[in-house]
Amino acid sequence: LPPAEAEALVRALQASELRDIGGQGWLRQHEYVEKLNMHGILSASAGQEQLLTELLVSHAKIPVLVGELISVEIWKHKVFPVLCRLQDFKPRSTFPIYVVLHHEASIINLLETVFFHKEICESAEDSILDLIDYCHRKLTLLAARSTTAPAATSAELPAEPLASPSSMQKQAEVMEFEISLKALSVLRFITDHLDSLPLSALTRMLNTHNLPCLLVELVEHCPWSCWEAGKLKKFENGTWHVVPPEEQLKMTKLDGQVWLALLNLLLSPECQRKYRFDGFNKSQLLKLRAFLTDVLIDQLPNLVEMQRFLSYLAVTDPAPPKKDLILEQVPVVWDHILKKHSGKWEAIAKHQVKHAFSPTDEELRLQARRWAQTYSLDMMEALAPDKPLCRVCGAEAGKRCSRCRNEWYCSRACQVQHWQKHKPACDLMA
């Protein structure tokens, strides 16, 4: 995005009311978030995300994004189940609802991109408590996952419009896994900047949520890794892939996020002063010693300090935490939304069926055109990690159909060979 357009999109971000979710104004805001999200990814890959970071900080938009995140999460758990039970709910309503689910993924992805910077963490102010709570809920879902089979991924979802509320529920479960992995990265970045957090944030992470023990659970069960048909599969870069035997001990980025968060939370003097090293917590933390192999430490040398700390913890009883916090802040966004709308979930659902989730044919066409502009092929290709492959022979492709711009070929010969099969789809796309 040009700097002026990026600033205009950031300035346009604003808090949404729960009943407006899915409406036309809210859909426009989703487009703004999605464009900023794609801009952030491309800028970060080029090492040029400083402009977006400065815009979000100077216009104080991080609390707004956190508020949007919490609103969508509450909508999913409180309003969506009521919506599915209403007789007026039609299958075509899934068209805008899909965006509600995607909106949460876009926001957490944008936050993952920018929270690497300390000034972003500072600009979150009191909303950081809501974000910590949000990440805790997502990590709890991750820890509770079955590790006997891999989760589905967004790449495996059907491309056709979803047909029923039950299929939308399945869609939500699939996306929840990928969103939770993004939340893990955001939490790790938050722990990188402990000195920039409000006083209550550290207490909330250590004692209210006991994040060290939750992270131990993730190390132990590793929900992004599983065995299937005798082969080890790991989730990385949005897909599950089989790991060859010689790379099975290699640390993934997700493994690294967990270990770095543990290092930040356990080795900081302030954290050691506030954390309760009681019998249960101590026994859970000592489980980490079994995972601290020489191979792992070679990949992340900082874990030597963790190994030394756990050896010390095994033979000592640390002093009880010093209770020096008399007043504790509580997260305001979650509580405010629940109190404001308590008992009104059905009324909100009925309002949304009437005003947001019963689009006319013309509204559907208009929204489809807007999305086609937002999710342009050129932009999506820039975000893709792999080079395009020829549709016929599978070789790396440098040309594509000039009419529909949807199929790639390595040469003119392959394109001509594929034309009879491609022609019906090409006519439709064009």
UniProtKB/TrEMBL annotation:
Transmembrane portions of the chain: none
Superkingdom assignment: Eukaryota
GO BP terms in the entry: inner dynein arm assembly; motile cilium assembly; outer dynein arm assembly
GO MF: zinc ion binding
A single cellular component GO annotation: apical plasma membrane
Keywords attached to this entry: Cell membrane, Cytoplasm, Cytoskeleton, Membrane, Metal-binding, Zinc, Zinc-finger
Residue ranges annotated for the MYND-type domain, each copy included: 390-426
Intracellular or extracellular location(s): Apical cell membrane; Cytoplasm, Cytoskeleton, Microtubule organizing center, Centrosome, Centriolar satellite; Dynein axonemal particle
Family in the record: Belongs to the ZMYND10 family.
Function according to Swiss-Prot or TrEMBL: Plays a role in axonemal structure organization and motility. Involved in axonemal pre-assembly of inner and outer dynein arms (IDA and ODA, respectively) for proper axoneme building for cilia motility. May act by indirectly regulating transcription of dynein proteins.
Protein name: Zinc finger MYND domain-containing protein 10
Native source species: Setophaga kirtlandii (Kirtland's warbler)
